[in-house]
Amino acid sequence: MASNHTQHYALNRWDLEDQIVMDDFNEDNAKIDAALHDNAAALSALQTALGSGGQNARVAFGSYVGDGTYGPSHPNSLQFDFTPVFVYVVENDNHQKSPMVRGCTETNSTYGDKITLVWTDHGVSWYTATDVTNPHLNQNNRNNEVYYWIAVGY
Fold first, then answer.
1. 3-class state of residue 127 by DSSP
2. For residues 52 and 142, which has the higher predicted lDDT (pLDDT)?
3. Top mean-pLDDT range of 53-62, 84-93, 131-140
4. 3-state secondary structure string, the chain?
5. What is the tens place of the pLDDT at every residue in 65-83?
6. CA geometry: angle at 122 spanning 117 and 125, to 5°?
7. Where are the domains of the chain?
């Protein structure tokens, strides 16, 4: 039987004169197994909290070139590897700007016309009505125009 134990897990430590007993090894193995299991669970929880399952802020940005289409049949959309909560699209010349906030089902174009928003877990789509003046401009989709966007989410 061991006469000493380790500081943190109280594992058996034998001196030269101690009798070695199988139960000591079995007890140590059970402690080690439990500690490894607890550490693996804690690491998994930490990875979830820091990664895609957590609520940490994520930011992405980019651009696209408009193709001139518009309306409910031709929405614009952006997809992300996180859940967006705020998306801001701006035309290259900074004239048309569209802020989009998760939970809102519409926003207004710079021209004052309604833009309908459709949110998914990892993206947003938007379109404008076809009966407004310059719908492709309202929808941020003027043919061959560059648009820049930034998205914040978790």
1. strand
2. 142
3. 84-93
4. CCCEECCCCCCEECCCCCCCCHHHHHHHHHHHHHHHHHHHHHHHHHHHHHCCCCCCCEEEEEEEECCCCCCCCCCEEEECCCCEEEEEEEECCCCCEEEEECCCCEEECCCCCEEEEEEECCEEEEEECCCCCCHHHHCCCCCCCEEEEEEEEC
5. 999 999 999 999 999 999 9
6. 25
7. 4-50, 58-153
